[in-house]
User: What shape does this take?
Amino acid sequence: MDKILRVDMGAAGGPKFRTEPVGGFAGLGGRAMTSAIISEEVHPLCHPLGAENKLVIAPGSLSGTAAAMSGRISVGCKSPLTGGIKESNAGGQAAQVLARLGYAAIVLEGKPEGDDLYKIFINKDGVEVSVDNSLKNLPNYPLIEKLKGQYSDRAAYMTIGTAGEMKLLAASIACTDPEKRPTRHCGRGGTGAVMGAKRVKAIILDDTGMKMRPPKDPEKFKDANRRFVEGLRKHPITGEGLPAFGTNVLTNVLNEAGGYPTNNFRTGRFKDASKISGEVQAELEVKRGGLATHGCHRGCVIQCSGVYVDKDGNYVTKQPEYETVWAHGGNCGISDLDVIARLDFLDDNFGVDTMDTGAAVGVAMEAGLLPFGDGPGAIRLVEEIGKGTPLGRIIGCGAAVTGKVFGVERVPVVKGQAMAAYDPRSVMGIGVTYATTTQGADHTAGYSVGPNVLKSGGDLDPLKPEGQVDMSRNLQIATAAVDSTGMCLFIAFPLLDLPETFVALLDMISAFHGVTTTGDDVTALGKNILKMERDFNTRAGFTKHDDRLPRFMLHEPIAPHNVTFQVTDDDLDKVFNW
Amino acid sequence: MRITVKLFATFRKGRFDTEVREVPPGTTVSNVVDAMRLPESTGIIFVNSRHADPSRELSDGDTVSIFPLVGGG
Assistant: This one.
């Protein structure tokens, strides 16, 4: 990955691209690359939909190698949703293919005049940027169907649906999975709107004729990879729970723990949670001829994904993830998996973040537009997004905007981005992450749920403020580093519990680059990334007052534990105190 | 005394989802777990929605929720 492709979409006379050596960005991958470029090159006060913003697409530093789990791609920009720096990542095939093509990053710059829509095609022979207005207003599934016929079977696609073209704040970028379905989304923070503002509808990547990226020390690499995979298989979370039940295995866990945000964060337990649990979902999928075990990218050994089909065995959508099932399910009082699956399909097709969309529907229910529990009503509301009606645009801009338009106080967002499927009052460690991460309310940025609830990576009482800041800090640093490698974040479960697996990963990185990488190097990388991101956000106008939860969470206790969020502002300000 | 035992994920196989059972006073969490004869070590145990030590003595009306090690995100 020795080159960077820069495409100036706003060049006079039409988009112009150039390929340049990776230069000062050498060795960076994934989030390290996207945050370095954004923090260095984007004016922090720019309008996110304007010419000064950039969209950076970067495979991880291990993507395109034979390393298991290395299929994550990072997309970075100034977020139109949060106004701060954003890194959003997804699985699917794009990371592997782009890395094997030799690109450390694609940088979309500028903004074209006029109404034309573009596609960008990259293969071993070079780059083509062309107008294709026949793609206008196509949702992701029909878009891929149309494009598939024109490109080889090896192609991987990154596309925006109708939401991205409309520049909605919850617009996502879809990455195709191994079956070429647009199901793995860079969902959070409106990256799809930035791609739409630059008038790029699709990026098609074809690595035919390219090889796996070779390690400097192939024998050591192979051995380390083998030990790494052993750890993934041995650990019960990655070796059993996730392949059998997917991420939705968490519904029952969080519900039992009293941390499952129900009816727009009014209570921490949903009486119908078991109906939409991972156990029920997996059984239903298998019974109906779908799949409960599936890998979102080639080289995945965890296989936490699946395929959801209707009662007649017809494809509906990929197995909905825990956060999606929560956002459209318990958060809205909805207990019908078929309704939730339909909503997941609509989100993927229009190209919106399932989390902010579900949270927006929950806020709409709070506002009285429709009752909690109204599944058909929720479907009608999300369908509005596809129609581009004013109401659809509101919902498609996420929970914060929906709350403003309808005068709602209970809006579960930080820095404008909706929270995830863990209530911060009864899972206080995730509350610290939601409040302080540079990304807005984001659960993956420092997944305190592990030590707080899952007894993985530690064991810390979720109902007390003690220890949460230190734990969130350590996880945020480690996660930033993992986000740069292109490795799926679920490797963290065995990494944090099995020292030999952590060593295997370090050995793999060392053997790939031919330079010894230690745990200290990983920490330094993570800290550096967070420092760049914090600095950008400061320059963009953020202060410590933005590192806070919504105030209702300090005052309104949540059942069944009847707790409020108790980590003090002073302690929140200690997260980045190195 | 009467307690409710809930099993999840792979622990349900060949057992049950939810069962109410009579147990003698002084029964601990670990007594209940042993009685399940689970093939592997437990991951997460809640008593009345809070993490509980295996040595925790149960009371009448308690709910014990037993999970294997699971995760997601």
In short: The CA atoms of residues 28 and 58 of chain B lie 6 Å apart.
